[in-house]
Structure formats: C-alpha cells, structure tokens
TrEMBL record:
Protein name (record): Sesn3 protein
BP GO terms, sorted: cellular response to L-leucine; cellular response to leucine starvation; negative regulation of TORC1 signaling; positive regulation of macroautophagy; regulation of phosphatidylinositol 3-kinase/protein kinase B signal transduction; regulation of response to reactive oxygen species
Stored Pfam families: PA26
InterPro entries assigned to the protein according to its UniProt record, in alphabetical order: AhpD-like, Sestrin
Keyword Coiled coil: yes
Catalyzed chemical reaction(s): a hydroperoxide + L-cysteinyl-[protein] = S-hydroxy-L-cysteinyl-[protein] + an alcohol
A Gene Ontology term for the protein's cellular component: cytoplasm
UniProt KW keywords: Coiled coil, Cytoplasm, Oxidoreductase
Taxonomic placement: Eukaryota, Metazoa, Chordata, Craniata, Vertebrata
Organism this protein belongs to: Phodopus roborovskii
UniProt subcellular location: Cytoplasm
Coiled-coil boundaries: 253-287
Superkingdom of origin: Eukaryota
Amino acid sequence: MNIAEHMSLWCECASCGHMPRSGIDKRIRVSQPLTRGPSAFIPEKEVVQANTVDERTNFLVEEYSTSGRLDNITQVMSLHTQYLESFLRSQFYMLRMDGPLPLPDRHYIAIMAAARHQCSYLINMHVDEFLKTGGIAEWLNGLEYVPQRLRNLNEINKLLAHRPWLITKEHIQKLVRTGENNWSLPELVHAVVLLAHYHALASFVFGSGINPETGPGLSNGFRLISVNSFCVCDLTNDNSIENASLAGSNFGIVDSLGELEALMERMKRLQEDRGDEETTREEMTTRFEKEKKESLFVVPGETFHSFPPSDFEDDTIITADVSRYIEDPGFGYEDFARRGEEHLPTFRAQDYTWENHGFSLVNRLYSDIGHLLDEKFRMVYNLTYNTMATHEDVDTTTLRRALFNYVHCMFGIRYDDYDYGEVNQLLERSLKVYIKTVTCYPERTTKRMYDSYWRQFTHSEKVHVNLLLMEARMQAELLYALRAITRHLT
C-alpha cells in the first residue's frame, strides 16, 4: 500500500466521524501530529516555556544528543533538566563512546528493542542513525537479512521486554558459547543495557504521548500507528468528549481537589506512623504477596468505558514495518503472579541488589556504564521540588518510593524492608491502571489514561512519574539479566 492509500484511511467513532473503508485493516499512517508540539498529552506552551528559559537544555543537546537536535523526547524531558543531563550522558555513552559493540549494531539493537512495543517513533529515529553510522541498508529489510549473531538476541530481547523473570543462565550460556556467532560477555552486557534502555524508553514515549518527529530525513515525517479495536483518535487526540463531560459540571474539579487533599493526608499519616508500630517480617511478606496478587486484577483499559478489557485480549495488529524486526510477535507481558497456579519464586532484592551486585558486574564488563546508570537511577529516585500540585514544602519520598516499588512488584521483585501496604494507600486505582499499562503494555497507553489520574497535578509532575516508571522498569530488567550472567559466571 502506498502513502496515498494510507492517507485515505480514516476511522469512525462518536468523536471524529471518520471511518475506514471496509475490508482494509486498521493500520494508519498519520502525516502530521494530531496535536502540535512534542507531546500529544501536554500543551505545547508548557514544554516550549521550559526550553526557552533553560539554556542548560541547549548546552546538553549540543554536548550529548546523538541526533544533534532537540528532539521531542528531549523537549519533554527538559521539564526536569537535572534528570535530562543524566539521561543524555548515559545514552550518548551507550551509542557513541568506546564500547564492545560497533556503532551500527548498537542502533540496530535499539530498533529490535523498540519493535517489541511497536514504537515506530524510536524505530524511525534509529533507522536514520543506523544508516548515518555506516549500517548496511539491506539489514533494514528484516531480521532474515542480518547476521545470525544479531538474530540470536531475539530470545533475550523478548524475555527482557515482557517477562524478564524467565531469563536463566542457560540463555546466557547459549549466547556466549564458542562458535562463530558467539557473544563475548562485554558485548552481551552492552547489548543487554541497550535492550533494557530502549524497552524502558518506549514506555516513556507512549506514556508521555510523544509526537512523531517531522522534518527532512526523518522517515518522510510519517508515523505508523498500530490500532487494535479502538479508534486511533483516542490514542493522541484532545479527548473532546471526556473534556466536554467534565466541563458540564464542577464535579470533576471538586472531586480531584478532594483526591489531592486525601492523598496528602495519607502521606502525612504514613510518615508520622512510621516506627510507631512494629511490623513483623511475616506481615511484610504477606502484604507484598497481597499487592502482587491484586496487580493481576489491574487491567489496562478497565476504567474507561470505550476500552473494555476484552478489547485487549485479541492479538494487537502489528504493522509490517515493525514486525520485520522481531520474532514471535504474539509474545507479551504475562502477570508474574498468574491466576490459580504456583509460579516462579519472588526475586528478593536483598539477594541481588543493583548497588551491591548489578552495578559492579556491569561496570566490570562494560567500563563506566555502571556509574552513569547508577547516577541516573539515583537522580530520578531522589528528584523532588518539594511540591505537590499547588502545595509547597511537601516531602514526596513515600510517594516516589511507592511508584518505583510498585513497578518492581509487578516484575516479581520484593524489598524486605518495604511495607507494601503503602502502595494501596498512596496509589489510586486509575494510577495503577496507568502504571501497569505504561510499564507492561506501553503501546496501549491513551491520553484518557494519562488524564484520568492526579487531575490537579502539573504536567511536569506527571512527566516525573513517567521518568520513575521508565527507570524502575529498566532497573528491573537489568537485575534479572545481570543475575543470570552472574550465575553463568559462578
């Protein structure tokens, strides 16, 4: 199908009144963003203001941007310049600085990782970078055209992206075994870091509604959108129906103000009560297991009438442009705590921590990347402006920790010293739906989900949430992969 034919496909729902021609699959190319600016979720003026007042962002782009320009991801991240610096420095190191892997291979691995979540934004970006760094154009025809050595990454790519707890030392041994297609351990660690980075970055792209890049040389300025059984306009539009219904009364505003005050009260109470009651280790374990099991029933789309859970049980349509870079496209996230069956043992964070185990291993095999990743993890975890919506002088530590640990909980990672009862007190249902979608099924994220939680909070605060989710996810993937490598070495 040529571009003209793609352009003639439209969709129909109650809000937009356009319809696809019968008999044509629902794969749509949109020639320009449906909303202006770098994000479909955030008003353009908020991002532009952040960029114009902060010269630091321009300096960082000049120093560390691989594309040499202020792309849409960087513009949205510039709402948090301190974090942006850590992010750009680590990404620049992975893609540009001395390391075990050739430059074109790094970008191809990024493409493979982004394809697991159908993230055409990142695929288009790295197709261009792949070619600029001397990549062989034929490889872009699909995996059958790349060396077997790269194809061998498919298994660990899909496991890391969707079910990292299944990675074992046998997967590592298979990749590093002797033979012409083997990987050295430093090469494999570099590849694993890239895969985890781009899986997590896909979560940020979808969670923040990043618009496609436009301009010369950017994959013709077109974006692929994979559509399941819901309307494409719900992916990126202004959700005029929902906004109109809220505008019809003050109920939504009053209700969200009440939610904010209640959340702040719960945070204050948790901080005051900490240390007052002695919680046994058995009780802490029980609370983790309860939270893990409850996450089973957090279903993407469940709180939105237009996205019933059944919509997501069908196989998602994957465009040919994406599927060429992956194998086993039907393989996706499956809850760590599956219904009605005993499953894998919980990953006890104290047995294999990033600080004591993962950091030293990754730094030994891929020099200096450990320091850069550690700085990035610490930066996002500790980042605070001591504000919540319009309130100042607020300690948000408990809230940030709950967000980070809830992601790890969904990936089967437990912290013995954390009371998982705090998760239920601090994270409302709509926020849990959003977190699970962005972290586990990012390609299903909609503006309606983004708008549904913390309605009194600023967009900058919601971007901070997305940064926390992204880094928590990346760290979870790395912990499983590095633990498997450690077991292989021992």
